[in-house]
Write a structure and sequence with these properties.
Pfam family, one: Ion_trans_2
Order of helices and strands: HHHHHHHHHHHEE
Number of strands: 2
Distance between the termini: 53 Å
Membrane topology: Multi-pass membrane protein
Subcellular location: Membrane
GO biological process, one term: monoatomic ion transmembrane transport
Keywords: Ion channel, Ion transport, Membrane, Transmembrane, Transmembrane helix, Transport
């Protein structure tokens, strides 16, 4: 019985059946709902009902974490992955409301769970023609959004209560966006050496991600098709030969409308 349950669990997380794909899509929806809840509740006082929902989220996240740990072939390596550490912090912050809002808002690291959705790329390519056509743009946008959320959470967690200019999530988001775009109005600044280092990180990595998004949006549209000879993965939409090695390639199209 235990072995059958283990195989069923492995099928859900690693299988290719329709039910397995639906299950992983539901995990993605859960992550998005969790992030929305974290942001929405940052503007209000945390009452009993919010703590109850926090606990519910924490239990679900813990169950998901335990399942992935059970299925991991190299569990020690799994435990030190950045996304795994972010999940552990999220579980603690959801299940420990008495830690206070400063630590509690580190729940925003749950946005790193969006990175787990990259395992769905193959399925997304199969299911959605729009995703196949715009995959690079979508991934670059997700990278930028995740970075924005995480850095905003870090700004809030480190500056709330110690910096009167950061009173809520909106203030932290406003600062992060102005720093990322190098607009720098100067009406909100981060206090202390740690605040300056966070500002540097936002500007360096944020600008890099923003430029990456601009690059994939405005460069000539490419199709992802791996050349079997040299491995080049991006080609022109109408290419019949690899521009790197000259080998014939076959790019599937949906035909002319």
């Amino acid at each position: 019985m235990a072995e059958r349950r283990f195989e069923r669990l492995r099928e859900l997380y690693e299988g290719n059946s329709a039910g397995a794909h639906r299950f992983r899509y539901w995990l993605l929806v859960f992550d998005l709902v969790t992030i929305t809840f974290v942001i929405a509740t940052s503007f209000s006082s945390h009452g009993k009902w919010i703590e109850a929902v926090d606990a519910l989220f924490g239990v679900v996240i813990f169950a998901d974490f335990a399942a992935r740990l059970l299925l991991a072939n190299r569990r020690l390596r799994f435990l030190i992955l950045p996304a795994t550490l972010a999940d552990i912090v999220a579980i603690v912050s959801f299940l420990a409301p008495l830690a206070g809002e400063g630590l509690g808002f580190l729940r925003v690291v749950r946005t790193l769970r969006l990175l787990h959705t990259y395992q769905l790329l193959h399925r997304l390519r199969m299911d959605f023609p729009f995703f196949r056509k715009n995959e690079d743009v979508i991934i670059a946008a997700i990278n930028l959004i995740v970075f924005l959320f995480v850095m905003t959470g870090l700004v809030y967690a480190t500056q709330y209560q110690s910096n009167p200019q950061i009173a809520n999530y909106a203030d932290a988001l406003y600062f992060t966006v102005t720093a990322l775009t190098t607009t720098g109005f100067g009406d909100i600044t981060l206090a202390g050496t740690s605040g300056r280092m966070i500002s540097v990180l936002v500007m360096i990595f944020g600008v890099t991600l923003f430029l990456r998004l601009a690059q994939v949006m405005f460069r000539p549209l490419k199709v992802r098709q791996v050349c079997q000879t040299c491995g080049l993965s991006l080609h022109d939409q109408d290419a019949i030969h690899c521009k790197h090695c000259g080998a014939p390639i076959r790019i599937e199209t949906e035909g002319l409308s």
